[in-house]
Specification:
The chain has 496 residues and is mostly helical. It is 78% helix and 0% strand. The C terminus is likely disordered.
């Protein structure tokens, strides 16, 4: 029954991919959906890419077990900073500037904003090296979940999921992603609501009013504002998971593709509500884990099995299938976005850097081929988890740390220089790679510093280095008089 349920859902994805294929005629169609995506679809595309099996299977269980109810600070951070502020600060400016510059990828934006082809090449390589292993980690989390629910061997589940991703993504590109994101978003909403209803109503929890007393009986700190690990680890997780999306190419791509400025306000609030529900459902359920297990030995010592075990213990089979689709939907969307952005780093950024006049139709077809290649490469890494263990942990912090400051200041300030952008990228990259290697148990803290330190480095270096040519700045911002008046009126640009 469960298998048939999943196969029916997969059939819907394939139909969407086939319908989308008829709309894809150009590179812009394939990668950005012809910049014609509406508010609800844009919001769900952002939200479903943000949250995957890594949240529902790994993070929710591990963080909830360690921090208890204080993990809900991450919920506020993800909703207010990772979603609401991200759309308020970045969406309109990103769409306007990328249209002016004719940029459709993060590396291409950095090249045209700062007049540096080398910056484009280095950025593309960072995306290629660190996003593909991240996609492999999502494959791993989802495959372990399939193994626990269906008893399907991990490797078989892995290849099944990869084949689905490849087919509908290669057929329809970003059109297919956004249409399936909308369906997947609805499934995720239903799944989280149902999960909360059954988990909170279970005998182990005893209802909403019993949550705090029950956790206090186990350990008073599990119901306190700051959980047992302390405030520094908690703040590190809040910053890493909330500020990180500001510098992740697969998240920023959603802003490139919005139809017009009018859809942004609606998309902002829909995204925020979606993020609030998803993260609350995941982290709140994880925070109740001590009410279900006295020790991790009951889940084989594996924190990744906390959430699947809770679901199996508390939910009827039919409802468990809805939750299965929730995790499946969240992961498929994230995987598709990661693969699409990774393939663009080679097909669009590196190929164009070598051959600027390359035919766009050939590039689009190359992207289709590379989507399959990168899925294959992710599979290769996923069946060898020891090879990517440290690289998986580095991925989020390294990519966000490298791009956040150069991208953000590139949007907000005319005075950011190419040297400042380089300094931000290099400092974020080095902090993440070097210190995560030296202190592997402090990766959330290191990742947070990799994002925060460049925010100071970029303006400091820009202040003492040569300004960009005015013609380059005007191409990005438009006429100085008009833009400056708008900026002063709204008070949104950081002055150095």
């Amino acid at each position: 029954m469960k298998i048939l349920f999943v196969l029916a859902y997969v059939g819907v994805l394939f139909v969407v991919g086939f319908v989308s294929m008829k709309k894809v005629k150009t590179l812009n169609d394939f990668f950005l959906g012809d910049r014609s995506i509406g508010p609800w679809v844009s919001a769900f595309a952002y939200g479903t890419t943000y949250f995957s099996a890594v949240l529902f299977i790994g993070y929710a269980g591990k963080v909830g077990w360690g921090f208890g109810l204080s993990s809900l600070w991450i919920v506020l951070g993800n909703a207010l900073v990772g979603s609401l502020l991200a759309w308020k600060v970045l969406a309109k400016r990103t769409r306007e500037m990328t249209v002016r510059l004719g940029a459709i990828t993060m590396p291409e934006f950095l090249e045209k904003r700062y007049g540096s082809k080398a910056l484009k090449v280095v950025s593309a390589l960072i995306i290629f090296i660190f996003l593909v292993p991240y996609s492999a980690s999502v494959y791993m989390g989802l495959s372990y979940f399939f193994e626990s629910i269906f008893g399907i061997p991990y490797v078989y589940a892995l290849f099944f999921i990869a084949a689905i991703t490849a087919v509908y993504l290669v057929m329809g590109g970003y059109f297919a992603i956004t249409l399936t994101d909308f369906i997947q978003g609805l499934v995720m909403i239903a799944g989280v609501v149902v999960m909360l209803f059954f988990v909170v109503g279970s005998p182990q929890v005893g209802g909403w009013t019993n949550v705090v007393p029950a956790l206090q009986a186990v350990n008073p700190k599990l119901a306190s504002p700051v959980g047992p690990p302390g405030i520094v680890p908690l703040l590190s997780l809040v910053v890493l998971t909330s500020l990180g999306p500001w510098g992740l190419p697969q998240m920023i791509q959603k802003f490139y593709a919005v139809k017009n400025e009018q859809v942004i306000n609606t998309a902002t609030w829909v995204t925020t509500g979606f993020a609030l529900l998803m993260t609350f459902g995941a982290y709140f359920t994880g925070s109740l884990s001590h009410l279900f297990f006295r020790s991790l030995e009951e889940v084989g010592g594996n924190v990744d099995m906390i959430m699947p075990t809770i679901i199996n213990q508390t939910l009827p089979d039919v409802v468990a299938m809805v939750i299965l689709l929730l995790v499946f939907s969240a992961s498929m969307s994230t995987l598709a976005s990661l693969v699409l952005v990774s393939s663009s780093s080679i097909a669009v950024d590196l190929v164009r850097a070598i051959k600027p006049d390359a035919d766009k139709t050939k590039i689009m077809n190359l992207m289709r081929v590379l989507c399959v290649v990168f899925i294959g490469f992710s599979l290769y890494l996923a069946v060898r988890p020891n090879v990517i263990l440290s690289l998986m942990a580095l991925s989020w912090g390294t990519v966000a740390g490298s791009f956040l400051a150069p991208y953000l200041y590139g949007l907000l300030s005319r005075k950011t220089t190419a040297a400042g952008a380089w300094a931000g990228l290099v400092s974020g990259f080095m902090i993440s790679v070097v210190f995560s290697t030296l202190y592997p148990k402090q990766i959330p803290l290191v990742g947070s510093l990799a994002m925060l330190v460049p925010l100071l480095v970029v303006p400091a270096v820009s202040r003492v280095t040569e300004r960009l040519p005015e013609s380059l700045v005007e191409k990005a911002f438009g006429k100085e008089e008009t833009v400056e008046k708008t900026i002063k009126r709204k008070g949104v640009v950081a002055e150095f």
